[in-house]
Structure formats: structure tokens, C-alpha cells
Amino acid sequence: MIATYALIAVVVLALIFVKMAVVIIPQSETKIIERLGKYYATLKPGINVIIPIIDKAKNVVTMTRGRYMYSNNIDLREQVYDFDKQNVITKDNIQMQINALLYFQIVDPFKSVYEINNLPNAIEKLTQTTLRNIIGEMELDQTLTSRDVINSKLRGVLDDATNKWGVKVNRVELQDIIPPTSVLQAMEKQMQAERNKRATILTSEGDKQAQILQSEGDKAATINRAEADKQQAILKAEGEATARIRKAEAEAVAIQKITDAVGKSTNPANYLLAQKYIQMLNDVAQGDKTKTVFLPYEASNLMGSIGGIKELFKGE
After folding, report:
1. Residue 127's CB: how many other CB atoms inside 10 A?
2. String of b and e for 1-16 (b: at least 16 CB within 10 Å)?
3. 135, 144 in Cβ contact below 8 A?
4. Coil/strand/helix, residue 176
């Protein structure tokens, strides 16, 4: 019976020993093994065998959900630290709050364990101090518009400083930049004034362009009207000239026909004059109103004309 219990105890102890000796490491993780307090090995993913009690995994500080915790597993994946907001002062003495995100990866587990005591805390403090120094060299406006510059400078400094800790800083992002309320109000007023200024400038430019276009349109319209009046006057003059030419040609034809009718012995002009005279007397005689007829001052000329008319009608 005692032998049976002893055998069971040996089996249990053997199982416990095997369980302690066999260490299974997940992918993208590792453990630092110390043998009798001295670095012995860095375990790889998969099954690893150690000597229980003699070999022991080194505990390291990790950050989980914003809290520092001890663990003997070292995560080799890229990690992100979301640091709390911190107060910084710009070059022009403006105090504001900044929140940064840090993306890093442990590339050398040995250095991350033995070159620094508390890696997450060291990275956090280094990020805060470096960020204060960078912001302290920049004015407020430059800080608000130069996130990429700040991120690049911060990543360069952190990557160089954490290289001896076996850490690779991949990127740094400024999540929030919060100026004081008074500064925000002043910035809002400034932006509103700038918008109003741009609106006024655009309105004036629009009015200017509208006036220019209006004046050019008026100029073109005036030129067009002048050209139209010119063409109208030319056409009218040409029409009047043509009408006069046609009238003169018609009168010449009429005179020629009169000459042919009355003969060459009679002056056609007297014939035409007689017709005009008779038409005038007819017009004077028409109407019931009193008519006043003015005779030529030189009566002899009038009598000569009448005589010529008389002779003309005798010839007919």
C-alpha cells in the first residue's frame, strides 16, 4: 500500500516536473530565461525545455489598459501607448494640452529587459519630455499647423533614444492639441474676421469685374450704335443721291419728250414753267380762306414770264 502511494507521488512529481520543464511560447511572444539568476536564453515560439527551479522566466513590466503590470511574457508585436494629456508651453508662452499616441515594437528582448528597468514608463517619460522640448521651440500657430513636423521630430528623437533599449519606434501621432479657452475664442474671432475680410475682398473684386464688364458692354453698344447710325446715314445719303439721280433722269426724259412734242422752236423750260404756274394758281384758288398773293418785285420779269407762257400756249 505504501509502495502504491509512493509510486503515485513519484508520478505526480514527474508530471509536475515535466509541466514545469516544458514551456510553450505563442507566436510573436518570447520569454527571457535566467539560470541561477544569470541570463541563460531567449525562448522562441513553440515548445522549449528548461530545468525547473534552476531556470526561471524573468518578469518584465508591461502596460495593459493604461496600467503597469508584471509578466514574464514579452510581446514582440507592434504596440500602441495612449498617453494621458499633458501640459506644454509654446515659444510664445501659450499653455495647452497635448495627447500623443506612440507606436513601437520590441526588436531585441534582451536589451528591453536588461538595459532599462521599466520600459513602458521610460518610453512615456521620454515622450513627454521630448514633446515639451519640441513644442517649446514652436509658436502656437506653427504648433497647430505643423503636426506632421512635430510627429517626425518626435519619432526621430524617440527612435534614436530607444534604440539601446531594443525598441523600434515606428510612428508618433498627436491625437489632441487643446489650447486654452481664451485662446480658442480669440482664434475663432480672428478666423471670423479673416473670413469677413476675404468675403469683402471677393465682393469688391466681383463689383469691380461687374463694372468693367458693364463698361465694356456699354462701350461695345455705343460703338455698335455709332456704326449702325453711320451705316444708316450712308445708306440714306446713297438713297437720296440715287433718288435725285433717278428724278433728274426722269426730268431729263420728260424734257426730252416735251421737246419732241412741242418742237425745237419752243423752249421746253417755258412749257414746264407754265405748267407750274397754272398749278400754283389752281392751288391758290382752292379753299374758302382769304389768300394773299405776293407778286415779284420786278413786274417786268413777271410780265416776261407771262408773255412767254402766252406765246407757249399760242404755239400749242
Report:
1. 24
2. eeeeeeeeeeeeeeee
3. no
4. strand
Q: What are phi and psi of 28, to 5 degrees?
A: 70, 20
Query: Which residues are within 8 A (CB) of 8 and not within 5 positions of it... i.e. 6 or more apart?
Result: none
CB 59 within 8 A of CB 72: yes
Instruction: Please compute, for residue 239, the number of CA atoms within 13 A of its CA located in the half-sphere on the CB side.
Output: 6
**CA distances (Å), 25 to each of 46, 53, 155, 294, in order?**
5, 19, 31, 143
Residue 40: alpha-carbon gap to chain centroid: 63
The reported pTM is 0.55
Angstrom distance (rounded) from CA 95 to CA 99: 14
User: 174 near 98, Cβ under 8 Å?
Assistant: yes
**Rounded Cα–Cα distance for residues 139 and 128 (Å):** 18
Query: Residue 290: helix, strand or coil by DSSP?
Result: coil
* pLDDT greater than 70 at residue 136: yes
Nearest Cα neighbor of 43 from 62, 21, 10, 63 is 21
Task: Answer whether residue 308 shows pLDDT above 60.
Answer: no
Return the biggest CA–CA distance within the chain: 190
Q: In the 8-state DSSP scheme, what is residue 41?
A: E
Looking at residue 151, what is its pLDDT?
Answer: 86
**Distances 273 to 13, 135, 245, 280 between C-alpha atoms, Å:** 162, 114, 21, 10
Angle in degrees, CA 61, 62, 67, rounded to 5: 110
> Burial level of 212, CB count in 10 A (0-12/13-18/19+)?
exposed
Strand intervals (E) in the chain: 22-25, 29-30, 32-35, 38-42, 46-49, 55-57, 60-64, 67-71, 74-75, 79-82, 86-89, 95-106, 167-178
Instruction: Give the CA count within 13 Å in the CB-facing half-sphere of 73.
Output: 12
What pLDDT digit, counting tens, does each position of 48-95 carry?
Answer: 988 888 889 888 888 766 677 888 888 889 988 887 888 888 888 888
